[in-house]
Design a protein that fits this description.
14 helices, 38% helix, pyruvate-formate lyase- activating enzyme, 364 residues, 5-stranded parallel sheet, alpha/beta, 9 strands, single chain, 2 domains
Length: 364
């Protein structure tokens, strides 16, 4: 696997504490991984043969971390002065009809504002093979050492949403402008409604957290309607369930429960959802509290939160599968067995899918 040679100021790997498993410190920047697994790459470490092979064998779509076209801004973001060669490679790939999905990690005060306008203008006016443009917020942990980095908050997120909506309206005749998408995190931070399901098209950046929430809710609603009947709804409302999730996850589950509430016909049972099904939002103290996505929850934070909960009072405790790697280990080296209480059979590892949540709720 080709490693990344950049020194990006927002690199999440650089913001991890020491002593974690070695695989977490691998900075991959491999175009094969981009093609096969959807990893985002910078194009900064490609040689001529590799570039020619990408074109010759149509290795696409590639996921490209672009961030900005401005040389000065890119030098700040990438931490080196050799990164602009990647822009030339990107232009070459586009001229040769190699399709790409673009990521912009947005850093307040650095590549937002006029620089973001410039980036979007260039992407939507010059390039023909860009399938999507995804904008995601910079992630900052307590181990960050770069004073230039600032987090997004509700106000900044709200302003960005308004700007992107306005940008699309102004450029509505330009179809390329309609392939610009914002990460779900911005809408959750701003407490604004997510775009409609159809607006995400083919969900080309769902692995990047773009459209993931609305897809989850859509799948959950369809599955709940499919599996629900009087018998298992009554079972659900008699079953004590605890759902462990992140601070952002709490907002998603709240939307899911509002869907359930609307699908239960008996008025007296609607309040039972909130009596029997509880959400446990876990703050990510391990990384400093600013990282609020579910997939980066630490086992230590979950276990600490569960200590203040009577685990044996619940018939089901749903723990998100996405916090574990393929070997069943969390980011801070806790295993599945570390989460059990006295009542060992009530811990259920639940895939982060709408249909799985519906099944777990309705299975009694």
């Amino acid at each position: 696997m080709k490693a990344c040679k950049n020194n990006c100021i927002f690199c999440f790997i650089k913001q991890l504490p020491e002593g974690l498993r070695q695989s977490l410190y691998i900075k991959d920047d491999d175009f094969i991984e981009s093609f096969t697994h959807g990893n985002f790459i910078t194009l900064t470490n490609l040689n001529k043969k590799e570039i020619d092979n990408i074109v010759k064998y149509k290795i696409e779509p590639l996921q490209i971390s672009l961030h900005s076209f401005d040389k000065k801004v890119r030098n700040i973001l990438f931490g080196n002065k050799k990164n602009y060669e990647a822009v030339k490679i990107f232009k070459f790939l586009d001229r040769n009809a190699v399709r790409t999905n673009i990521q912009i990690v947005l850093c307040p005060g650095i590549n937002d504002g006029s620089d973001l306008v410039n980036t979007l203008d260039i992407l939507t006016s010059i390039f023909n093979s860009v399938l999507s443009v995804g904008i995601v917020p910079v992630g900052i942990t307590k181990y960050n050492k770069c004073s230039l980095l600032k987090s997004f908050d509700s106000a900044l997120s709200s302003s960005l949403i308004e700007f992107i909506n306005g940008y699309k309206r102004i450029n509505i005749k330009n179809k390329k402008s309609q392939i610009i998408y914002l990460s779900d995190e911005f809408y959750i931070m701003a407490k604004k409604e997510l775009p409609g399901y159809r607006s995400y098209g083919r969900f080309l950046q769902i692995k990047n957290g773009i459209g993931k929430t609305i897809d989850f809710l859509n799948e959950f609603e369809r599955s709940f309607k499919k599996y629900a009947n009087d018998k298992n709804i009554k079972k659900m409302l008699k079953t004590d369930i605890l759902i462990v999730t992140s601070e952002y996850g709490k907002e998603v589950f709240a939307k899911a429960f509002s869907i359930v509430e609307g699908l239960i016909p008996e008025a007296e049972n609607k309040s039972g959802i909130y009596k029997k099904i509880k959400i446990l939002p876990v703050k990510n103290n391990f990384l400093g509290g600013n990282v609020k996505v579910t997939g980066l929850l630490a086992g230590s934070d979950i276990i600490e939160s569960l200590k203040s909960t009577d685990m044996d009072a619940y018939e089901k405790i749903l723990i998100p599968e996405c916090i574990f790697n393929s070997e069943g280990i969390t980011i801070d080296n806790f295993g599945i067995k570390d989460f059990s209480g006295r009542k060992k059979d009530n811990i259920i590892i639940c895939p982060e899918e709408g249909k799985e949540l519906a099944r777990k709720l309705l299975s009694g």
